[in-house]
Amino acid sequence: MNDLNQLFRLDNRVAIVTGSGRGIGKSIALNFAQVGAHVVVAEIDQSTGESTAEKIRASGGKSLPVIVDLADSQQVKKLVDTTVKEFGRVDILVNNAAVVNAAPMAPIVNITDENWDQYLRINLTSTFLCSREVARVMINQKKGNIVNISSASAFQPCPSIAPYGVAKAGITNLTLTLSTELARYNIRANCIIPSAVDTGRTNPVFGTPEERAKKINIPLGRLAKTEDIAYAAIYLASDASDYVTGACIEVIGGPISKRQGDYELFLSQFPEL
């Protein structure tokens, strides 16, 4: 019989966590370190990236901050090369880096080419580039694990932030393709579907976390904590989910069909075009 405590451990596994200087990514990085992983903090913001890495080291873990623009293929390659040089392998990739406010909120008829490209570059292209480079290493290892962070926005209308929803839908589909292509190499790929998450930063469109939870009718009555997403990531990255691939796990506090949805709040920003 397996030791359940050990099943969820990530001892000595090397994990790249993108966008881990703050919010969900930071929580994933810190919690991965608590269960034994060596964490590469891939972040475009030097100060937040180094802060996360320092917290891990202060608690006795191993961490390497790498400042990187994840939408630049050459920088992504350097990130992976640096990881392999430092730790000898890559066991886990968490594609978390994303932004909701890459460009001003706008209805589709007012979205510029530049705004569209910027959203997809940051939110979708970065996931593709990181997955491609890490998969090349994992194929040689004959083992690996990719965890993508998608969003409930992939399955809902996204008035005023259409390219964000499109990018997240792309990540969900990319996950399915990765899981199919890489299974023969003992590489798993799954994604987490968060919805409303309290990252500590209040969006004036939504109000306080308590107000937002009430407005969008979350059955469990609260927003997700960043730790809720991190715990799901630990499960998917660990041996406890050894037979799980191509899955999209919702961490949303209840069925979306019973909620009003954030899109109504976004739509209210543009009552007329």
Task: Describe the SSE topology.
Layout: H1 4-7, E1 14-18, H2 23-34, E2 38-43, H3 46-58, E3 63-67, H4 73-87, E4 92-95, H5 113-141, E5 144-149, H6 162-182, E6 187-194, E7 197-198, H7 209-215, E8 224-225, H8 226-237, E9 248-251, H9 262-267
Parallel strand pairs: 1-2, 1-4, 2-3, 4-5, 5-6, 6-9, 7-8
Outline of the structure:
With 273 residues, the protein is an alpha/beta fold. It contains nine helices and nine strands. The longest helix has 29 residues, at 113-141.
Radius of gyration: 18 Å
* CATH class wording: Alpha Beta
Helix tally equals 9
The span between the termini is 62 Å
CATH homologous superfamily descriptor: NAD(P)-binding Rossmann-like Domain
Helix content: 40-55%
Q: Which sequence of strands runs across the widest sheet?
A: 3-2-1-4-5-6-9
Low-confidence stretches: none
Q: Calculate the mean pLDDT score and round it.
A: 90
Count of strand segments? 9
The CATH topology annotation reads as Rossmann fold
Number of domains: 1
**CATH architecture tag:** 3-Layer(aba) Sandwich
Instruction: Kindly name the structural category.
Output: alpha/beta
Describe the sheet with the most strands: 7 strands, parallel
